[in-house]
Amino acid sequence: MGPVTLSSAHPLVDGRTTRSPLVRALRGDRPERTPVWFMRQAGRSLPEYRELRVGTAMLDACLNPAMASEITLQPVRRHGVDAAVFFSDIVVPVKLAGVGVEIVAGRGPVLESPIRSASDVLALRPIDPAALDPIREAVALTVAELGETPLIGFAGAPYTLASYLVEGGPSKDQGRARAMMYADPHAWAALLNWCADVSGEFLKAQVEAGASAVQLFDSWVGSLSRRDYQRRVAPHSARALSHLRGIADADDRHVPKIHFGLGGGEFLDVMRDVGADAVGVDWRIPLDEASRRLGGTTPLQGNIDSALLAAPWSTLRSHVDEVLDRGLAAPAHVVNLGHGVPPETDPDVLTRIVRVVHGEL
Fold first, then answer.
1. How many Cβ atoms are within 10 Å of 112's Cβ, its own excluded?
2. Catalytic choice (16, 24, 40, 239)
3. β-strand pairing of 151-156 with 108-111
4. Exactly one of 24, 49, 82, 89 is catalytic; which is it?
5. Is 164 a catalytic residue?
């Protein structure tokens, strides 16, 4: 894996997104306007997304550059958020590496042949960088339309990817995956290294094609103890982010990295220390407490409770105001949800939240 190289046309090189509220906040500067975007904003709750997706399977949509770009842009147009997040799925690089996986409606990613043994791990092949060309094309199309609004690239963290691969699909407690972690630690480490490398190359492709920031998602990390996360998972997350090495940390070309782990409140500091510039916080921990646990030095992202999106507006408005207030404890704050947008969410509610965060309502 070679170092990341940004072309002269990259938005952080030509200056389009360098002073955007999102990039400034993720670098630890508090901009005049607090930035806001939503996890899973690209699609899910938008009628225009559902209309566009009719007849197209999820992974086919992800690998259709024109469609993926259009879906990425839809929430920026509708809500006025401060960033687009690339429309894709964490298993896309797994599929592009030759693993049989499909996304089943109402269930999630399902593997044709789950990874259950050391020999299964040895059979995994590295991802061919050329396989990521549809991703590069979709990012380039999107960035050309976004102007000064940054695009956030993303990937699944190694533990979450490995959990899907071992379990064969979504799991409540990742029991098989955690059993493998103890029963065959060498195979476990090899599997997480493979996951780190496919996710790392996925991130690298998005950044080189024009993403101005990235987020590493660890959706299932809440099933781990602090000790297991620190010893058996965190080094592999660091490996995934190391694929973005080569960009000077001190200049305007630095691509900020957000690390978000659902249920990871007991090891926010470890999640930061794998190489993240900012830490995403779910709804379980107030932002001022999260900042205290991180020593008051780390930009935070979060953490509106998605469940309150269906509450009366006065209740939700009070909650958003509280999140903004507690976010002042951190050096900088990017407003987001504590998890993703539920598909049944009224899109107008998200637009109103953006206006509140921007001081317009």
1. 9
2. 40
3. unpaired
4. 89
5. yes
Tell me the Ramachandran region of residue 155: left when phi exceeds 0, alpha when psi lies from -120 to 50, beta otherwise: beta
pLDDT tens by residue, 140-154: 999 999 999 999 999
107 is an active site residue:
no
DSSP 179: H
Residue 249 appears among annotated catalytic residues: no
E strands present in 90-221: 101-104, 108-111, 151-156, 213-218
Catalytic residue chosen out of the listed positions 44, 239, 272, 326: 44
pLDDT in tens, 248-296: 454 678 999 999 999 999 999 999 999 999 999 999 999 999 999 999 9
Q: Do 312 and 306 contact (CB within 8 A), yes or no?
A: no
Q: Which of 53, 253, 284, 317 is catalytic?
A: 53
Q: What is the pTM of this model?
A: 0.96
CA nearest to 12, candidates 205, 210, 214, 154 = 210
Selecting among 159, 164, 197, 326, the annotated active-site residue is 164
pLDDT value for 295: 98
Which stretches in the chain have pLDDT values below 70? 1, 247-251
